[in-house]
Specification:
Elements (H helix, E strand, L loop, with lengths): L1 E3 L38 H8 L8 E4 L6 E3 L15 H7 L1 H15 L8 E3 L8 H25 L8 H10 L6 E8 L3 E3 L3 E4 L6 E9 L2 E8 L21 E3 L1 E3 L1 H21 L3
Parallel strand pairs: 1-2, 5-11
Antiparallel strand pairs: 2-3, 4-10, 5-9, 6-8, 7-8, 8-9
């Protein structure tokens, strides 16, 4: 099996390079030493899809720097964010968030998702649905925040306020500008690069990345408040239209590319057949 970091989803490309040095203090609590590495793809997710990994049974890891790097442990440094957080935030403070996504990930992978169909959140979490869906939201905030911190440490200008991510996690409340989409992908494993851009006119900020775990995927989007209308296809705990359910999105980009290529080939063949 292969794990790929840096697949680029469709959208305006402003790629953020990886490889930042760890921060001195945890960006979440801003008090404790940043001494704990957060997996870029959740360890339990990797174990579920890759199985047991060892030096005798490794897998191959690819990123924007190098292809097919041999990895013999799910705790390998290369699988963790280079920007660290403190052990307390990574464990005690966000443990319920991790467990929320671990449960939802298992539930999504165990059922046949159909793109374009609605799934009620209480079909995933039968009890304390709202609280546990907020935990999922906060789990992806942690990953998103690590990516923003990494990008800024690399010298990139990211017009997204990291403090708002910290405040949301510390208070246990959703970030009002971060939305999720749950859907199906092309059986990829890993995460995309972080993309961030401004729209014209108006200069509204949009940022996002894709978390892939065959055959499911989650799109994590930052959408600047007050600049866009509430979209039914974006899930948020406080959404007026989709807080209690989510629309299964289509992230099967490879399939779309193959379909487009076949359509072009068919059109070219038809044109050649009618040529004088």
């Amino acid at each position: 099996m292969s794990l790929v970091e840096g697949n680029v989803p469709k959208g305006p490309p402003n790629q953020v390079a990886p490889g930042a040095d760890p921060a001195r203090l945890c960006w979440i609590c801003k008090e404790n030493k940043a001494d704990s590495g957060e997996h870029k793809t959740k360890r339990s997710d990797l174990l579920a899809v890759l199985g047991k990994v060892s030096q005798k049974q490794p897998f191959f890891y690819s990123d924007t720097k190098k292809k097919n790097q041999v990895v013999g442990s799910l705790d390998a440094k290369i699988l963790k964010s280079p920007v660290r957080i403190c052990a307390h935030c990574n464990n005690a403070r966000t443990q319920s968030h991790d467990r929320g996504w671990e449960w939802m990930s298992d539930r999504l992978r165990s059922r046949r998702l159909e793109t374009g169909r609605w799934v009620r959140c209480n079909r995933i979490f039968r009890h304390f649905t709202k609280r546990k869906m907020i935990a999922v939201h906060l789990y992806f905030l942690k990953l998103f925040g690590c990516m923003i911190a990494e990008a800024k440490a690399n010298g990139h200008e990211v017009p997204i306020n990291l403090d708002a991510f910290s405040n949301a996690i510390m208070s246990g409340r959703p970030h009002p500008e971060v939305h999720l989409q749950f859907g199906r992908c092309d059986n990829g494993i890993g995460r995309s690069d972080l993309h961030c851009w401004k729209t014209d006119p108006g200069g509204a900020v949009i940022g996002g990345w894709l978390y892939q775990l065959e055959p499911i995927a989650v799109s994590i989007l930052y959408v600047q408040a007050g600049k866009f209308k509430d979209r039914r296809d974006l899930w948020h705990p406080h959404s007026r239209t989709s807080a209690k359910r989510f629309l299964v999105a289509d992230f099967m980009y490879a399939r779309r590319d193959r379909t487009e290529e076949r359509a072009k080939a068919t059109a070219a063949a038809a044109e050649a057949a009618h040529a004088p």
